[in-house]
Amino acid sequence: MADNDFQDLQTYQAYCERGLANQDPEGALVDFDRAIALNPNLAGAYHLRGVVKQNRLNNPQGALADYDRAIAIAPDYTSAHVCRGMLKKYSLNDFNGALADYDRATALEPDLVEPYFLRAELKYRQLNDPQGAVSDIDRAIFLNPNFTVAYLLRAELNYWHLSDVRAALADYNQTIALDPQLAIPYYSRGVLKNNELKDVRGALADYDRAISLDPQLTMAYYSRGLLKRNEFNDLQGALADYNQAISLDPNLAEGYMARVELKYTHLSDIQGAIDDLRTAANIYRKSGEAENLQNALDILDEIVKDCNLII
To answer: Which of 24, 34, 83, 228 is the most buried (most CB within 10 A)?
Structure first.
């Protein structure tokens, strides 16, 4: 390598390093542009510029062009395939393209954890391949036994799609053991305990813990309200939880419907029940949930008839 070539490479690397450290995304782009101008046949600056465009400047098409160029220069550039796969999935809805990039990444580096997990999420949530997703998660956990979110995703798959309650419970337990400050696994474990194990006190404890860790976790309030109403006959506690769930998510139609039963049957709040039914019906109508809409309207009709109301 000639002295000038070596100096150019050092300058190229300096621009890339400064771009990585630059807190200003536009300033980072300038550094990567300079690196590319200095040597347009090296892949690294294209990849890094793509990351900035994707994650900090909301420019998915610009990011895609940069990832494409990086991969054209260096077809075995694993990180570029991973980033391009994420871009295709999350920004471009190109799920098959994302799968191809994750496949390439796992082929290039079979011991790299991230692409297995990303591919598992893609197979589960977009490609309707739960068995393939579990296989990828198993591999990710084998490579990193402390990969908390992999256990959480596998628990969800085992419970909701593979009907393996014991495996799901073990994965929720492991998730909590690895990160006791994460709210979601407590909530999800509470659902499992309530629905499958009939462990209502264990479920209540898990909902309580989830809410203490994340007071904004809407569904934990809703589920705890149902539990208090159905298992503990704690009507006021249930109402408070429904109120909080609706406060956090005013479009939670299930919350209004659950509150209807309390208001009408136990609290003699007929007008409140009617108002909640109308709100739920409007939400179902807007979201195109015809069956739920009809159910809400049927209940409203029954209340009107029972109470001899004119509305």
So the answer is: 83
